[in-house]
TrEMBL record:
UniProt record, GO biological process: lipopolysaccharide transport
Domain called ABC transmembrane type-2: residue spans: 36-266
GO cellular component: plasma membrane
Main location: membrane
Localisation per UniProt entry: Cell membrane
Protein name: Transport permease protein
PANTHER family the UniProt entry points to: CAPSULE POLYSACCHARIDE EXPORT INNER-MEMBRANE PROTEIN CTRC, INNER MEMBRANE TRANSPORT PERMEASE
Record keywords: Cell membrane, Membrane, Transmembrane, Transmembrane helix, Transport
One of the Pfam families matching this protein, by short name: ABC2_membrane
Length: 274
């Protein structure tokens, strides 16, 4: 059962230098044709943040803050804690799913495991994530929110995020190569998940019925996003809700297993589906 997982993980470790080189090259190629270059790493998400804050913060909420266990938090700040991770999640899901179909021909020239392609896409997107996360720290300091012991959990939740995205991309990239309609369906699903995840609405204070909240918790991004936000605000520890933590890791392990198994089964025939 663990043979497939072990093989895929060994490939990531063995070719880790190649992953970094390919990711670095893709980042440079992505922005070299633009006048503003890497500034778009900040400018593009900043424009989206401004739109969401105007519509949801000033429009729907009327500028009202979000009530947390530790008091009221400005909606703009609360929204940033969920939206910045989402700007990493969404392109990693969509781009990771398309990574094999997009660059499988490169493998025939360079001779490296195809399982590196989804991982490379994750590292490409992580550059923007780290940049935006650094800006979030600055904004938090401006609002008077400083590091606490709970911030240690960010390492855990960001680790959860990377492992889940890798597991999902491994499975999804295989499906997207075999069935091209899947990529279009996935893009629509990600647009829907933006509003089904606790990014622009408060799961505790926006009058969400318990039965709906329990259904929404089946979304693994719910676990990660609320965990990151709780870490910043010092609300709770991840081990306080072990049932939900166990559910997340079982879900992620299942994705990793089926992703590795499916990938290894079909990867020698990927060229036939192009």
């Amino acid at each position: 059962m663990f043979k497939e997982i072990k093989q895929v993980l060994q490939e990531q470790f063995q070719y880790r230098d190649l992953i970094f080189r390919m990711a670095s090259f893709e980042i440079k190629a992505k922005y070299q044709i633009h006048y503003l270059g890497a500034i778009w790493q900040i400018l593009n998400p900043s424009i989206q943040i401004a739109i969401y804050w105007f519509v949801f913060g000033l429009g729907i909420r009327g500028g009202n803050p979000v009530t947390t266990k530790l008091g009221e938090v400005p909606f703009f700040l609360w929204m940033l804690m969920g939206l910045i991770p989402w700007f990493f999640i969404s392109p990693s899901i969509v781009g990771g799913s398309n990574s094999v179909h997009q660059k499988v021909s490169l493998v025939s020239k360079m001779k490296f495991p195809i399982s590196l392609l989804p991982t490379t896409k994750l590292f490409v997107n992580s550059f923007q994530f780290i940049t935006m996360l650094s800006l979030l720290f600055i904004v938090l300091f401006i609002y008077g929110i400083y590091p606490t012991l709970h911030w240690i959990q960010l390492v855990y939740y960001i680790g959860c995020l990377f492992i889940f995205l890798f597991s999902f991309a491994l499975l999804s990239s295989t499906i997207a190569t075999l069935v091209r309609d899947y990529q279009m369906l996935l893009q629509s699903m990600m647009r829907m998940l933006l509003y089904l995840s606790p990014i622009l609405w408060d799961p505790n204070g926006d009058r969400v019925p318990d039965w709906i909240s329990n259904i929404l918790k089946l979304n693994p991004f719910y676990y990660i996003l609320t965990g990151i936000r709780s870490s910043f605000l010092g609300e709770s520890w991840f081990f306080e809700d072990m049932t939900y933590t166990i559910y997340f890791w079982l879900f992620t392990f299942a994705l990793l297993y089926f992703g590795a198994k499916t990938h290894l089964k079909f990867r020698n025939n990927f060229m036939d589906y192009l």
